Amino acid sequence: MQQPPVSTLPSGYQPNSGLLADKIILVTGAGDGIGRTAAETYAAHGATVVLLGRTMSKLEQVYDAIEAAGHKQPAIYPMNLEGAVEKDYRDMCDTLNDEFGRLDGILHNASELGDRTAIRDYAADTWQRLMQVNVNAPFMMTQALLPLLEKPEHASIIFTGSSVGRQGRAYWGAYAASKAAQENIMQTLADELEGVTGIRANSINPGATRTAMRAAAYPAENPSELKTPEALMPLYLYLMGRDSIDTTGQLFNAQ
Ligand SMILES: NC(=O)c1ccc[n+]([C@@H]2O[C@H](COP(=O)([O-])OP(=O)(O)OC[C@H]3O[C@@H](n4cnc5c(N)ncnc54)[C@H](OP(=O)(O)O)[C@@H]3O)[C@@H](O)[C@H]2O)c1
Q1: Which of 21, 46, 201, 209 could form a disulfide with 157 if both were Cys (CB 3.0 to 4.6 A apart)?
Q2: Exposed, middle or buried, 57 (CB in 10 Å: 0-12/13-18/19+)?
């Protein structure tokens, strides 16, 4: 089977410090790991960031860090993607519309790892939970928020893939399948929206990154040998900001 080409950040890319000035950007899983760093980085480049996650105390810490740094006041949107249903996403659209009137970008970053076990033994309830959080939630959220993303001239949706989503690997079960699905949704959406709206959609495979999820997946690994979330941010900025307005439907590797 032929794999689609994978893109990387244009060499020498330097984001402008005001790249995301006046942009409203929603980040899911903004309380920890890559999502936290992306939220703080987007705020540092001028965005008003909507911090979505399930653990309020973590979201408050990110909120405080952004405020203390003197960036635009963020907003917190507490939501557990596991239990969220269509109506929750419609309500979310109404709330964001009332507050901001539009949306310039979504970073679909929140995901669960699930069990590292063989398909033969994979628990069906864990499988369904992962599909709910990693696949159904970004689908329902994107669908509900498209009217807000259509309001600005350009908007960007970033999905988050993984190496095991591009090529399945033993014991990665629902996580691998969910990441393949997320990147496929991205491609379908990008194809549907290109030329019809100013919305582009791309996905990032972060690669091995020093976070709690990576430590859970590889407990014997030395985290200090891994790239930090900060090291990935040029690509996260590139795809969210106007430098990528002609790029859509692409699979990116951050490393
Ligand atoms: N780290 C890597 O090496 C690596 C490699 C490839 C792909 N990725 C992908 O990169 C993204 C970020 O990963 P990470 O390593 O930064 O993971 P992380 O440190 O585990 O952070 C994931 C974030 O998602 C949130 N989240 C999980 N389930 C949720 C739910 N049901 N509702 C709302 N929020 C939820 C978590 O909330 P809590 O803080 O409340 O737990 C957390 O803030 C994920 O999509 C992951 O699959 C990571």
Answers
A1: 201
A2: exposed
Assess whether the C-beta atom of 227 lies below 6 angstroms from ligand 1.
no
Residue 1 has what pLDDT?
61
Looking at residue 221, its pLDDT comes to 97
Cα dihedral 130, 134, 139, 145 sign? positive
Q: Which residues contact 90 (CB under 8 A, 6 or more apart)?
A: 144
If one looks up domain 21-250 in CATH, what number appears? Answer: 3.40.50.720
135 close to 122: Cβ distance less than 8 angstroms:
no
Q: Does ligand 1 come within 6 angstroms of the Cβ of 109?
A: yes
Q: Is 41 helix (H, G, I), strand (E, B) or coil?
A: helix
Ligand 1 and 206: CB distance under 6 A = yes
196 C-alpha to center of ligand 1: Å? 32
Task: Using the mean position of ligand 1's atoms as its centre, give its distance from the Cα of residue 160 in Å.
Answer: 10
pLDDT digit string (tens) for 2-48?
A: 677 899 999 999 999 999 999 999 999 999 999 999 999 999 999 99
Q: Which portions of the chain are predicted below pLDDT 70?
A: 1-2
Q: What is the pLDDT of residue 4?
A: 76
Active site residue 175: yes
The pLDDT value recorded for residue 69 is: 98
Phi/psi of residue 229, nearest 5 degrees: -55, -35
